[in-house]
Design brief:
Number of strands: 15
Helix content: 25-40%
Distance between the termini: 34 Å
Oligomer: single chain
Structural class: alpha/beta
Strand content: 15-25%
């Protein structure tokens, strides 16, 4: 297969991997495509809850057609025995002739051992195909393994002048229905939705995914010391409710230790500021409405106490689009 062909099939595997985002923690969201004689004979992605793994799904679909095929996998096949046998061994047993990987798994239980199993089994191995794209997709998993914390996406829905509510607290609705539906789609791709204690007490938010049918609901996280108001109990329409305290790094370390890889932070302003000050925001998503509230309105982000403009946290714009009357924009930390 040419390098161009390898890239094309890996791009297909990355699209499949995205289907697992928000559904598979603490496991990574992986995609796998099996190709024989230029024809896709099997496809798979990590299933809800983290199992079966992508490779097993693709091998099951391909059945005997896996023999002699090339497997395109977005993360190095696992090498350790857990609740299931290693995927690297399953690929060897199925008679796959070659594996193309995007990323080496930094998990100490794998960390090159998966590739070594494949090579000992006589398979050809090509590494680092579309590595940058795979790293972007796997940021949450990679951060949890290497830094012990989940990826943090900070979401802000504001007026044109950066306000989230009137001085009275009235905020429904600054943005329109298309923007609000988009927010629910992003919640669906994260393991947890987090708010501060002030937001929980003032708004009693549902923090669930609505409008997408039966789904695996994200964990609801309230970052606060002391009592918080009663929120809906865990059930089909609401995920588990967790409370964390301490500083930003401590809170995220606790969430990482509990298996979370992707956290969607929806405020309020003090929590947003504390995460930004600590350098713990990996992605910003904004929804900007065409109305002005003025200086008496509540700001989206609390004080950052910056000594100089050069100290302001900077992000790079990677996406923008119009959603009805509002503007959506997404930024990533450099």
């Amino acid at each position: 297969m040419s390098a161009e062909g390898d890239s094309r099939h890996m791009a297909h595997a990355l699209v499949l991997a995205r289907r697992g985002l928000g559904n598979v923690w603490p496991n990574p969201a992986v995609g796998c495509v099996l190709v024989r004689d230029g024809i896709v004979v099997g496809r798979g992605w990590t299933q809800p809850g983290g199992r079966p793994h992508a490779e097993v799904m693709a091998l099951t679909q391909a059945a005997t057609r896996a023999r002699g095929a090339t497997a395109y996998v977005t993360l190095e096949p696992c090498a350790h025995h857990g609740k299931t046998p290693p995927c690297a061994e399953a690929l060897v047993a199925a008679g796959v002739s070659r594996v193309v990987g995007a990323l080496t798994d930094p998990d100490p239980r794998v960390a090159g051992r998966g590739y070594a199993i494949l090579e000992r089994g006589g398979l050809g191995v090509t590494r680092d195909v579309l590595r940058a794209q795979a790293e972007h997709l796997q940021r949450g998993f990679l951060l949890r393994v290497t830094q012990g914390r989940p990826m943090v996406t900070l979401k802000l829905a504001t007026s044109f002048d950066g306000r989230i509510a009137l001085e009275s607290g009235e905020s429904r609705w600054i943005t329109g229905p298309l923007a609000r539906r988009h927010v629910h789609a992003l919640r669906l791709r994260h393991d947890a939705v987090m708010v501060g204690g002030g937001t929980a007490r003032a708004d009693r938010p549902a923090l669930n995914v609505r409008g997408f049918g039966p789904v695996r609901q994200p964990v609801r996280v309230v970052a606060a010391e002391g009592p918080i108001p009663d929120l809906p109990p865990e059930g089909p329409d609401h995920g588990s409710l967790w409370q964390v305290g301490g500083g930003p790094a401590e809170m995220l370390a606790e969430l990482g230790a509990r298996g979370l890889t992707r956290v969607f932070c929806e405020g309020g302003g003090q929590l947003a500021a504390s995460l930004l000050r600590a350098g713990l925001v990996d992605e910003l998503v904004g929804y900007t409405a065409g109305l002005a509230i003025g200086a008496t309105g509540r700001p989206a982000i609390g004080p950052l106490d910056l000594p100089a403009l050069a100290d302001a946290p900077r992000f790079a714009l990677v996406e923008s689009r119009v959603l009805g009357p509002d503007l959506f924009h997404r930024w990533v930390r450099g």
